[in-house]
């Protein structure tokens, strides 16, 4: 594990020629172990949804966040992800998902509000993440360098995720 601020990160190698994919059983084993030590575990599934670790990831997930963009291709990919979830037994996960429309890719030829409205009919929440020069640069994110609108959108995403935390005090 490495440390990024107060965030502990368990990451695969960035070189795909070197890294090996986890099996479903290995992912489950790691998830169970991490959940003993951490109250919050985030899994970045990358852009693919048909790899071996998707089933245990989705079975353990309290919230699914699908990132798209307010473009024809970006919205289509996000929609296909929701379709895949629905057709593979994760209808509730799709319905309770959060769509994040990353506006770093956008076009004046596309009605972003219409795309957001379409997704609002399918999921629990839709948040537009504004274009931000600091995020566009890539690399480590320094919160104090983000624009206030970006911070607000990120806080909204976090709040929607937190809304789905299990109630540990429920009987």
**How many β-strands, per DSSP?**
5
Helix content: 40-55%
Poorly predicted segments: none
How large is the share of residues in beta strands? Answer: 5-15%
Rg over C-alpha atoms, rounded to the nearest angstrom:
17 Å
Mean of all residue-level pLDDT scores: 88
Termini distance? 34 Å
Principal-axes geometry comes out as: globular
Major beta-sheet overview: 3 strands, parallel
Give a description of the structure:
By secondary structure, the chain is an alpha/beta fold. It folds into 2 domains: 1-58, no CATH class; 62-171, no CATH class. 42% of the residues lie in helices and 12% in strands. The chain contains 7 helices and 5 strands, in the order ββααβααβαβαα. The chain has helices spanning 24-37, 54-60, 72-87, 91-95, 112-120, 133-137, 148-163, and strands at 2-4, 7-9, 65-68, 98-102, 125-129. The strands form 2 sheets. It has a 3-stranded parallel β-sheet, with helices on both faces. Helix 5 links the parallel strand 4 (98-102) and strand 5. Helix 1 (24-37) runs parallel beside helix 2 (54-60). The longest helix has 16 residues, at 72-87.
């Amino acid at each position: 594990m490495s440390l990024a601020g107060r965030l502990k990160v368990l990451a695969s190698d960035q070189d795909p020629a070197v890294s090996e994919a986890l099996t479903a059983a290995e992912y489950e084993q790691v998830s169970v172990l991490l959940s003993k030590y951490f109250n919050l575990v985030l899994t970045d599934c990358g852009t693919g949804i048909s790899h071996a670790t998707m089933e245990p990831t989705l079975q353990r997930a309290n919230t699914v966040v699908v990132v798209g963009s307010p473009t024809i291709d970006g919205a289509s990919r996000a929609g296909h992800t929701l379709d895949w979830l629905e057709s593979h037994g994760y209808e509730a996960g799709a319905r309770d998902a959060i769509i994040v429309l990353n506006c770093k890719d956008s076009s004046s030829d596309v009605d972003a509000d219409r795309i957001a409205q379409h997704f609002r009919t399918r999921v629990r929440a839709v948040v537009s993440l504004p274009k931000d020069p600091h995020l566009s640069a890539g690399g480590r994110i320094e919160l104090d360098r983000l624009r206030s609108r970006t911070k607000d959108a990120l806080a909204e995403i976090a709040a929607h995720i937190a809304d789905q935390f299990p109630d540990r005090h429920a009987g």
